[in-house]
Design a protein that fits this description.
Strand content: 15-25%
Domain O-methyltransferase C-terminal: 401-609
Cofactor: a divalent metal cation
CATH class of the largest domain: Alpha Beta
Largest sheet: 7 strands, mixed
Oligomer: single chain
Helix content: 25-40%
Keywords: Hydrolase, Methyltransferase, S-adenosyl-L-methionine, Transferase
CATH architecture of the largest domain: Alpha-Beta Complex
Radius of gyration: 29 Å
Number of helices: 23
CATH topology of the largest domain: Maf protein
Distance between the termini: 40 Å
GO biological process, one term: methylation
Bound molecules: 5-Methyluridine triphosphate
Domain O-methyltransferase dimerisation: 303-380
Length: 633
Amino acid sequence: MVLNPVIGKLVSKRVVLASASPRRQEILTNVGLRFEVVPSWFKETLEKSSFAAPHEYAIETAKQKALEVANRMHLKHLRTPDIVIGADTIVTVGKQILEKPVDKQDAYKMLSRLSGKEHSVFTGVAIVHCSSKDNHLETEVTDFYEETKVKFAELSEELLWEYIHSGEPMDKAGGYGIQALGGMLVEYVHGDFLNVVGFPLNHFCKKLAELYYPPLKHTIQHVKHDSIPSVETFENLSDGESDSSNPMQHKSANKLERNGVPLPGAIHTPVNSGSIKPVCTVAVENQSEVMEYPAKFPSKIVELMDGFRASKALFVASKLKVFDLLKDKCILKAVDVANKIEASVCGTERLLDACASLGLLEKTHQGYSNTDSANTYLVSDREYSLHGYIIHCNDRLWHLFTHLEAAVKEGTMQTHQAFGKETEDLFQDSCYHSVEAKQRFMTAMHNLAKLTARDVATAFDLSPFRSVCDLGGCTGVLAHELVQKYPILKVTVFDLPDVIANVSCFQPSGQHITPVMFTAGDFFKDNLPEADLYILSLILHDLNDEKINILLSKISGICKPGSALLLAEIVLDEEKTHPPRAVLQSLSMTEGKQRSGLEYKQLLEKYGFTNVQIKITGNILDAILGFKKTSAH
Ligand SMILES: Cc1cn([C@@H]2O[C@H](COP(=O)(O)OP(=O)(O)OP(=O)(O)O)[C@@H](O)[C@H]2O)c(=O)[nH]c1=O
């Protein structure tokens, strides 16, 4: 997949989407981009007649939206993002530019203008790279636009008003949403569909590729030490694809090294007092034997080589509670952090710098502080804290993965080698060996579930169901999400007695919380509570075929026709190479396995579930729903 590395280029950067449009957020989230949303305050009031073409208006508006956010973030919070993305979508018909309707009458005018005709949708996009020099914001703007042609069918008055009364047109350029009800008005689309929805993803990725992988302009030449025409500069040794985090820096960077690795062909001549010039030198071995540097610098591979260091830096900083110390805008110098965590100053400083380089901490002359992301996800007592899970990664998974070679050779989980215990004991012993560890593991699972529950609960229309049983539902996060979305649902969480005994401290409080029931039991051995929808979230991938057979036969046996089973798992693509998170999890060699969409479908069908639907949510967990066959099947 060519586009992934391009999006991956932005992983370590603070990316801000300067847009309130939920569609733009969704499009970019769906491809794995991590970003903050800071809607722009720029009013879309540029004088349209001053632009030679409509796309110029859209580009300029997008640019102003992004620059307003970049400036505001820089000035108000003294936090400069690396990249701000702005966009503006307009519809043009004839010479007229249509933006969002101001009221229903306006929507009516727009839609009747579009009825039966072809129109153009332009989205202008601005990618603003920011840097801060002496507290002064420097920006470099890259912009582009995309045009898509859309033809509407003839719209009757009745249809028009029905559509307007649906409320859909009001926050959309041209007064329609092609991705929803508005799709029914459309006869054809020529061009990028997502451009109409609000963000031209394909063109955006191409732009990023241009910015981050500029074509090689020069060949790198072999060095031979004895025939050296000296050169003054390495400027002409353009590496074509520096991994500099900012393409602005890319232009002026001296190209002696890339990611700290000397470029092939670059040698450092020692400064020698008697020599003619202390210059860096390059030589051509033989003009006819000029060797081309490989087209792309292996940045992905270098990133992977360093990946374990980055993970461990995060784990250790979490374990030492660095992010707790720096929470809520607290700024501390390395020496103060070192004192508090009782560590060496030099070691602490290196750790803090590593965290800053990974985008987890902010470093200024005053000291170190948490980034927004660290405040939300790394401080241990935050609602969505991943702290517990990170400690689990450090204390358990890390050890397991140090035995990966043996795991691959033997095809078995290396629990015994890593912990001196057998697989069967892992859950009990590794996760629940002490009250504290039990609490931490449950907190970790609870907080992870909070990140995924909403997308699972809303993946399908579950309104036909009246009772739900979440098997292995732990602290009931998904259960609560379900009763919030469907208040009449009677939801039961069924889990091991050890788990149920500890769920009370995880329950939400408040008058309007619909209760969830908790029942203790073992789903392999005990009778299951009655329900017309059963849920298995993150269960099947850990079970071997025999256990799956016991569990699914049991569920299938008590499901009445029309009842259903909802699975929440990561769904692999059919090649089983994506998403990497699931593929890498497989390396633990648990007795279970990750499955593709087709495999989940076949599995459910094998146990009498039909009409299987799969929803890739864009979140960590996807959802699979199958209905128990009616007797007619
Ligand atoms: C044609 C069409 C447009 N849209 C939405 O129309 C808004 C355009 O307005 P904007 O001014 O570009 O953006 P905004 O919503 O005001 O957000 P902001 O970026 O903050 O200005 C964006 O939302 C788009 O998705 C759809 O959702 N579907 C469609 O078929």
